[in-house]
Structure formats: structure tokens, C-alpha cells
Amino acid sequence: MSRVCDLTGKRFVVGNKVSHSNRKTLRKFNVNLQMKKFYVPEWDEWIWLRVSMDALRSINKKGVYACLKEAEKKGLIKLY
Length: 80
Prior knowledge:
The chain is built from two helices and four strands, in the order E-E-E-E-H-H. It is α+β, with helices and mostly antiparallel strands.
């Protein structure tokens, strides 16, 4: 399973690891993803989502159903 946020589509970013001697080596900066269980009152059911912490803050602010609708509008997920 790839490390991509279900709601925002965030994925890793590529950058350089810089050593003490100033050598640059490519590396990946992974997204802070967590598997979370959310209750959607509009559907009256629990769902599991792999979300970034940025998406979790949006869910706390707007609600899970509004965030799901936005992700569907962006084409990231498909609702029922």
C-alpha cells in the first residue's frame, strides 16, 4: 500500500540529505500518515481512512463528511 493521504493526496517529497562534508544524497521526506477510524453520521457507519495530520486538522475543523465531499470533488476518492 502506498503512503498517500486519502483525503488530500499528499505523498512523499524528494530532497537532499546533506552530510557534514556537504555531500548531497537524495532522500525521501515521508508524510506523517495515520490510520484513523471516523464515524460518519450522514451514513450512520464507521470508516477507516489513511490521513495526514494536515487532513486530520481539516476534519476536526469542518467535519469528516465535508472533507469526504471535497476529496470526491478533487477526484481522490469515490463515494457511494
